[in-house]
Amino acid sequence: MDPIEALKEDHRKVEQLIEQFEMSGSDGSQDANQIVKTIIEELTLHTQIEEKLVYPFISEQVPELEENVLEAIEEHQIVKNLLKELKSTKRDDERLKVRMKVLKSNVLHHVQEEENEVFPKVQESCGPEDLEELGERLEQMKMRGVRATRRRSASKSGSRGRSSGRKQGRKTTPARSQQSRRRAA
Which domains does the chain have, with CATH numbers? Predict the structure, then answer.
């Protein structure tokens, strides 16, 4: 997997989601709610991958990009703060549209810097083996993140209106408990 292309694909996906939100009328509809939720999930995973994997790789392999990496981390902090605000904004709140506009501006600026300044230098400075290894690690980290997001979503939707197995008279046996731990790992 080409890690630069994978990151660019993430960028395009988020740009498309923001565009879908703008076209949805951001009226608090179910569609707008789902788009906001997906944007939050995508950007959260993307920033984690970049901060834990990609930026340390760049700092080590291309030391002259250290200032760009530090700037990107600061930009991520701004985006994370905006994501927290989006999570707590009611979907019919008039500030939702404004917050999404600010998020879009920050994301587009960040993407432009990465794709026009950072990625080309990484591609020209790093060998194909190093990039391939980064791509494999990126793919693994993304899959773990996607699975974790699905588990969280499933547990949230599965726990609504239900009581736990213990309250329904089911006993938790050591075997059941062990199976649950294995599934969570």
Answer: 3-157 (1.20.120)
